[in-house]
Amino acid sequence: MSKLRTLMTAAAVAAGLLAGAGARAEDPFKVGFVYVGPVGDMGWSYQHDQGRLAVEQAFGDRVETTYVEDIAEGPDAQRVINQLAATGHDMVFTTSFGFMNPTLKVAQRFPETKFEHATGFKRADNVSTYSSRFYEGRYVVGHIVGRMTKSNVIGYVGSVPIPEVVRGINATLLAARKVNPEVVIKVVWVNSWFDPGKEADAARTLIDQGADVIMQHTDSPAPVQVAEERGMWAVGQASDMAHFGPGAHLTAIVDDWAPYYVRRVGAAMDGTWDSADTWGGLNTGMVRLSAYNEAIPEDVVALAESVRKGIEDGSIHPFAGPIVDQDGRRVIGEGEVLGDEDLLKMNYYVEGVQGRLPK
Amino acid sequence: MNADWALVASGLLTIVTAATPLVLASTGELVAEKSGVLNLGVEGMMVVGAIVAFMVGVETGNGALGALAGAAAGAAMSLLFAVLTLTLLANQVATGLALTLFGLGLSALLGRPYVGAVFVGLPDLWLGLDPLVWLSLALVAGVAWFLQFTRAGLILRAVGENHQAAHDIGYPVIAIRYGAVAFGGALSGLGGAYLSLAYTPLWIENMTAGRGWIALALVVFAAWRPWRVIVGAYLFGGITIIQLHAQGAGLPLPPQLLSMLPYVVTIVVLAAISRGAVRGRLNAPASLGKVFHASG
């Protein structure tokens, strides 16, 4: 299904771009984007496309952008990336973890083209990697939900149990317990990044089981809608989901790729680009929180803001000890913080998260 | 105790709503297959029904009009399929798959301005369930009665069992199949409309997320009997919801396994019923998927 679409898009890209080749010197700087989902997903790929639009806005006629959406992770991806490089793109952003090896292979063949790969860990002279510390946003949100819950149960709609998602759950719990030691988190995994129906069912289940705040690490706004319908609180994911549940939506943890994309394209244009690994947090603007719900008491907003500033200036670390895991095992003690290495392979729940982490 | 009952009641309601799009789409496909036409485009018809219903719902603010438009869009999609397979004698399997691809692309195109739009959802009619749930049950009853007890139903089944014989007696095989396919398309469209108007009132690309394929499997699971479609759909919805509850309650079961369960049960039931007597062991219409040409 998506294979055929990919083939067709690849062909369209080839046809469209071959026509524009030639006379390179006066050409605008060409930037290509490869998305794993449709731009209309209201989540991950949508936010990357917002970043692309910001690049166009920032540089106007000096850039020309192309995007290819809904590209399956696998051999198709390599063909599409290759196509973009071969049709005179000076820079290519590949925005899903599974595009890692295809990106590197194509990068070898096109040493003059600059590549940027999201969420991966393999680099080369012309391949940079970048990701966001989404967990910093969740740590701020944890303080809010810890104060807003009356039942002391936070419902969490999980996608797939990988360290990225587990880190978010743990950061939320550690923060919530700072302000409310009674808080527990119930997690329901839906085994999908995107299935509105199932996400909604998971949210309903969690509310039925006593949760009065719904958080999610899946991409559709369905859980926010369910919370609105049932009169509960919710926190949006990836993009601002407030208009799907204006009453319920406390805030959203927004992936904002725009500042990074503008900065990197700018660097590539003026020749200062180099291969780097960026894991940006709140202080880089790559993660931010959308507007707070007016129903949140002022002192809670003030607390959240102070935590946000603390993370930005480095005085607060979300994973500062003591941290105890679900089985009572001490992970780190007072005065220690978890390093990036440990964060990247986090595979346990901290104390207060209910249920077992699927292995 | 009271809270427990509330939990059970709420869980049951969730199961019923989760099953409703499947009941609608499966019942429609069952009628088409009973007439001998295999339309694998259910997913595509559902997703087009979902976006058209949502567009009309948002523009008019009227859920009933939206549902009607969704059904009409599904029927229009199925007529495209009917022209290709029944009039131009294209292969049904390939055409059905193409219809799904076409539907996914078309709905994404139509839906672009509607991503992020808000629709209020359908009101509850009775027992906390919206009108489409009740309509789905009425439709199953109606289809069961039609196929079993009416002359027209008998003719439709005859066309599905042996189109040559039906033609020789003088029944308009192609016309009857057009009707059955259009009905199937309308119900698929209505199933999609249920998703975008009631279940999760929003539009997102590919929001049917594979439910059309499950609906197809349910027809086989139900051995082409309308009442069993309800059993199958509610069983499927039930397992899905119960596994979510099990997770929330912290039962140490791997969610991957639980997500797989509904499909495993489908396979097991298929295996079990296909062990029955050889004659019509699956009760499949004998002419299902076969091309009919009047001269042949």
Can you describe what's shown?
The complex is a heterodimer of chains A (359) and B (296). Helices cover 40% and strands 19% of the residues of chain A. Chain A contains 11 helices and 14 strands. In chain A, helix 8 links the parallel strand 8 (213-216) and strand 9. The longest helix of chain A is centred in the first third of the chain and has 17 residues, at 2-18. In chain B, helix 9 crosses helix 10. The longest helix of chain B has 33 residues, at 2-34. At the A-B interface, strand 7, helix 7 and helix 8 of A face helix 1, helix 4, helix 10 and helix 11 of B.
Write the layout of secondary structure elements.
The complex is a heterodimer of chains A (359) and B (296).
Chain A: H1 2-18, E1 29-34, H2 44-59, E2 63-68, H3 75-86, E3 91-94, H4 100-109, E4 114-118, E5 127-132, H5 134-148, E6 153-158, H6 163-179, E7 184-189, H7 196-208, E8 213-216, H8 222-230, E9 233-238, E10 249-255, H9 258-270, E11 277-280, E12 287-289, H10 298-313, E13 323-324, E14 330-332, H11 340-344
Parallel strand pairs in A: 1-2, 1-3, 3-4, 4-5, 5-11, 6-7, 6-8, 8-9, 9-10
Antiparallel strand pairs in A: 10-12, 13-14
Helix pairs in contact in A: 1-3, 2-9, 3-4, 5-6, 5-10, 7-8
Chain B: H1 2-34, H2 42-60, H3 63-87, H4 92-111, H5 131-149, H6 151-161, H7 163-169, H8 173-199, H9 211-221, H10 226-248, H11 255-273
